[in-house]
């Protein structure tokens, strides 16, 4: 049975619509949403801004001269939007209806590769290539998506499937089939654009395309090229000209630069755009870019502004996807193909999840080291990934572990390593029979490292969904795996949030107390107190930005991390030294009296804190003013927090391209 809801004026109704998750729960299978049809909402904004007179301060929108400016960097990053200007008055006239179709999938019959060929869904050339890969059968997401994507050309598609279940081929197979079917139409043009949030993931998807090529050379004529930051732009344009690929795999920033430079030459015939890790691409830092890309490609398209079909794939999709669907999808109908049951957690069921609880961050570090000492000794070919909150923590931990684990291979991987080296590290760890990859959340999504036995997490991830993605680096392609998260008492809010929001409960729980032996050993390995202070400050900054999202008590989390300084140095009276007020400002704790408890304040930092404490004790509103800097729902308190959240997001998630350049100020320090 299907139910249909017709809603006029989506702008007004958006706030009243239940999210996707709730829609699934409520059993609705068709939802109809109406909104302005002629243009995507960001294009509409452009015209509104043109009418009202936009200024460079207006984040992410077009200005009068049809250029696109980003944030405060308006001038420097001003972009020429490759879309034609339009008469604003003609735009509000029509409404459109977007239908989200969620098929009920009862009595499912297995779909095989042979069937797809026999029913002429896929060509023999493609069938040959995929069968040569030797997969025993198609995965659930491949069975559910390939045919529907190819059968109905007037629909966009959203697909959700658990980590490591073959989503990459689920979109690459239809893309290749489309290229085969349209081989005579504009053979030298880009027809499909795949966007990914990290360079490493984009390069990995390019490798998957090359697997399709190398299993049947006849498919090599459908060329593919990656367009990612950290590589030479001029060289990439030259390659584009020379190879004339049909598929581009890109990160958003470099893709925008490419479209701006040569959009009219290569991107007028795009039929598909794919957003891998779609929910991530929707978040702050990417969403404006995605809207811009969508509008640009639509504006350039020779067939029409609503011609390009959009495919969204991820293991974690919730109501945010609705916003994405609104802003970057063109078709009036959108198929939502879900391989995860509505009552099921998004995490993969073949991962045995554990939690180890200790007193503070330092003790969690000892627990990780202890655990790794045991596993590398007892488990043959033990291959693991350890996630840490920040780049500095990653460096620190990989150094400690290289020394503790002796000859066991330890790889350090984060966004501050140059791209060529990053690619080498990914290649080495993929091919390694055993080893440990220590990384930030830059490695959390999409990366397919074969045979990872275990995923370890020291502290919390940068967002709730990344818990699912991080642990999903194991148990891939039908295999089993394990994960252990090491948290202090003050971080247990994350576990509650995972239960509440993601329906994930961790069965195996244990407490950890370090032995004096491991404490002594680690203390000997710490080379510099300054570096230790730096690492802990970076982690405090990370928590400053992420605690409210992750359900943590910010103050408790800060104290726990700060107390780790004394624990690591085996002298609990020692506090992290802070030499000036500027440093407190950078961490976002300048108006927070708890700073005196956490840090050993020196110079003007100490004077400032004394003055602050005195003014608060005199102020009749002191309770309010103290809360102001802490309350996550408080507009003013949150202002700084957001700044730091952005910085931390970049720091830990390793976002790409010019977004990095924009944050250089912070990156260099942390
Ligand atoms: N039909 C299949 N049968 C078995 N293994 C497969 C099949 N299709 C793909 N694989 C393999 O499964 C692994 C995971 O695939 P892929 O990286 O596409 O997963 P994913 O669903 O995109 O994961 P993530 O959510 O982490 O991005 C890869 O090594 C891939 O080669």
Automatic annotation (TrEMBL):
<dbReference type="GO" id="GO:0005761">
    <property type="term" value="C:mitochondrial ribosome"/>
</dbReference>
<dbReference type="InterPro" id="IPR011545">
    <property type="entry name" value="DEAD/DEAH_box_helicase_dom"/>
</dbReference>
<keyword id="KW-0067">ATP-binding</keyword>
<keyword id="KW-0378">Hydrolase</keyword>
<dbReference type="GO" id="GO:0070125">
    <property type="term" value="P:mitochondrial translational elongation"/>
</dbReference>
<dbReference type="InterPro" id="IPR000629">
    <property type="entry name" value="RNA-helicase_DEAD-box_CS"/>
</dbReference>
<feature type="domain" description="Helicase ATP-binding">
    <location>
        <begin position="148"/>
        <end position="335"/>
    </location>
</feature>
<dbReference type="Pfam" id="PF00270">
    <property type="entry name" value="DEAD"/>
</dbReference>
<comment type="similarity">
    <text>Belongs to the DEAD box helicase family.</text>
</comment>
<dbReference type="GO" id="GO:0005524">
    <property type="term" value="F:ATP binding"/>
</dbReference>
<dbReference type="GO" id="GO:0000963">
    <property type="term" value="P:mitochondrial RNA processing"/>
</dbReference>
<dbReference type="Pfam" id="PF00271">
    <property type="entry name" value="Helicase_C"/>
</dbReference>
<dbReference type="GO" id="GO:0002151">
    <property type="term" value="F:G-quadruplex RNA binding"/>
</dbReference>
<dbReference type="GO" id="GO:0000373">
    <property type="term" value="P:Group II intron splicing"/>
</dbReference>
<dbReference type="InterPro" id="IPR027417">
    <property type="entry name" value="P-loop_NTPase"/>
</dbReference>
<feature type="compositionally biased region" description="Basic and acidic residues">
    <location>
        <begin position="648"/>
        <end position="670"/>
    </location>
</feature>
<keyword id="KW-0547">Nucleotide-binding</keyword>
<keyword id="KW-0347">Helicase</keyword>
<dbReference type="InterPro" id="IPR014001">
    <property type="entry name" value="Helicase_ATP-bd"/>
</dbReference>
<dbReference type="GO" id="GO:0000372">
    <property type="term" value="P:Group I intron splicing"/>
</dbReference>
<feature type="region of interest" description="Disordered">
    <location>
        <begin position="613"/>
        <end position="670"/>
    </location>
</feature>
<feature type="domain" description="Helicase C-terminal">
    <location>
        <begin position="368"/>
        <end position="526"/>
    </location>
</feature>
<dbReference type="GO" id="GO:0006392">
    <property type="term" value="P:transcription elongation by mitochondrial RNA polymerase"/>
</dbReference>
<dbReference type="GO" id="GO:0070124">
    <property type="term" value="P:mitochondrial translational initiation"/>
</dbReference>
<comment type="function">
    <text>RNA helicase.</text>
</comment>
<dbReference type="InterPro" id="IPR001650">
    <property type="entry name" value="Helicase_C-like"/>
</dbReference>
<protein>
    <recommendedName>
        <fullName>ATP-dependent RNA helicase</fullName>
        <ecNumber>3.6.4.13</ecNumber>
    </recommendedName>
</protein>
<keyword id="KW-0694">RNA-binding</keyword>
<dbReference type="GO" id="GO:0016787">
    <property type="term" value="F:hydrolase activity"/>
</dbReference>
<dbReference type="GO" id="GO:0033592">
    <property type="term" value="F:RNA strand annealing activity"/>
</dbReference>
<feature type="compositionally biased region" description="Low complexity">
    <location>
        <begin position="631"/>
        <end position="647"/>
    </location>
</feature>
<dbReference type="GO" id="GO:0051880">
    <property type="term" value="F:G-quadruplex DNA binding"/>
</dbReference>
<dbReference type="GO" id="GO:0034337">
    <property type="term" value="P:RNA folding"/>
</dbReference>
<dbReference type="GO" id="GO:0003724">
    <property type="term" value="F:RNA helicase activity"/>
</dbReference>
């Amino acid at each position: 049975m299907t139910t249909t809801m017709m809603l006029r004026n989506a702008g007004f109704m958006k706030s009243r619509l239940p999210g996707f998750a709730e829609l699934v729960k409520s059993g609705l299978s068709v939802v109809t949403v109406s909104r302005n049809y002629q243009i995507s909402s960001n294009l509409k904004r452009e015209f509104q801004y043109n009418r009202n007179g936009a200024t460079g301060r207006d984040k992410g929108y077009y200005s009068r001269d049809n250029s696109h400016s980003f944030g405060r960097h308006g001038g420097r990053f001003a972009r020429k939007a490759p879309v034609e200007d339009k008469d604003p008055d003609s735009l509000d006239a029509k409404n459109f209806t977007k239908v989200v179709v969620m098929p009920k999938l009862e009595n499912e019959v297995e779909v095989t590769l042979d069937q797809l060929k026999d029913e002429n869904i896929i060509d023999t050339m493609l069938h040959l290539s995929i069968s040569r890969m030797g997969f025993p059968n198609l995965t659930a997401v491949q069975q559910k998506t390939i045919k529907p994507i190819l059968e109905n050309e007037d629909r966009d598609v959203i697909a959700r499937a658990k980590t490591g279940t073959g989503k990459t081929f689920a979109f690459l197979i239809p893309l290749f089939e489309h290229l085969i079917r349209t081989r005579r139409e504009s053979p030298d043009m880009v027809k499909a654009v795949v966007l990914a949030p990290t360079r490493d993931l984009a390069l990995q998807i390019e490798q998957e395309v090359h697997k399709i090529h190398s299993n049947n050379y006849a498919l090599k004529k459908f060329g593919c090229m990656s367009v990612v930051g950290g590589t030479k732009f001029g060289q990439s344009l030259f390659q584009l000209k020379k190879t004339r690929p049909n598929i581009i795999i890109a990160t958003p920033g470099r893709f925008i630069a490419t479209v701006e430079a040569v959009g009219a030459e290569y991107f007028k015939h795009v039929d598909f755009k794919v957003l891998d890790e779609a929910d991530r691409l929707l978040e702050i830092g990417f969403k404006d870019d995605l809207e811009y890309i969508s509008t640009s490609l639509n504006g350039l398209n020779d067939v029409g502004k609503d011609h390009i079909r959009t495919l969204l794939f991820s293991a974690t999709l919730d109501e945010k996807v609705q916003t994405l669907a609104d802003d970057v999808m063109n078709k009036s109908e959108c198929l939502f193909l879900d391989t995860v049951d509505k009552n099921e957690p998004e995490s993969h069921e073949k991962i045995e999840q554990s939690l180890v609880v200790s007193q503070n961050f330092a003790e969690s570090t000892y627990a990780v080291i202890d655990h790794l000492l045991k596993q590398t000794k007892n488990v043959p070919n033990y291959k693991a990934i350890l996630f840490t909150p920040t780049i500095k923590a990653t460096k620190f931990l990989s150094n400690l572990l290289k020394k503790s684990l002796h000859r066991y291979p330890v790889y350090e991987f984060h966004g501050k390593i140059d791209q060529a080296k990053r690619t080498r590290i990914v290649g080495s760890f993929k091919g390694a029979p055993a080893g440990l990859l220590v990384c930030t959340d830059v490695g959390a999504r999409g990366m397919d490292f074969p045979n990872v036995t275990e995923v370890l997490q020291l502290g919390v991830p940068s967002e709730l969904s990344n818990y699912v993605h991080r642990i999903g680096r194991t148990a891939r392609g039908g295999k089993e795996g394990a994960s252990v998260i090491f948290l202090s008492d003050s971080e247990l809010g994350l576990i509650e949030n995972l239960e509440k929001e993601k329906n994930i409960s961790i069965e195996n729980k244990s407490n950890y107390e370090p032995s004096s032996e491991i404490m002594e050993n680690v203390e000997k390995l710490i080379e510099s107190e300054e570096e230790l202070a730096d690492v802990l400050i970076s982690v405090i900054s990370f928590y400053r930005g992420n605690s409210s999202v992750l359900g943590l008590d910010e103050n408790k989390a800060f104290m726990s991390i700060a107390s780790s300084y004394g624990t690591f140095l085996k002298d609990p009276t020692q506090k992290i030294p802070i030499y000036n007020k500027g440093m407190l400002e950078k961490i976002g704790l300048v108006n927070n009296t708890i700073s005196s408890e956490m840090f050993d304040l020196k110079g003007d930092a100490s004077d400032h804190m004394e003055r602050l404490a005195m003014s608060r004790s005199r102020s009749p509103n002191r309770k309010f003013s103290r809360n102001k800097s802490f309350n996550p729902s408080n507009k003013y308190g949150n202002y700084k927090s957001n700044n730091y959240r952005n910085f931390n997001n970049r720091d830990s998630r390793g976002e790409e391209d010019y977004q990095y350049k924009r944050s250089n100020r912070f990156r260099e320090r942390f």
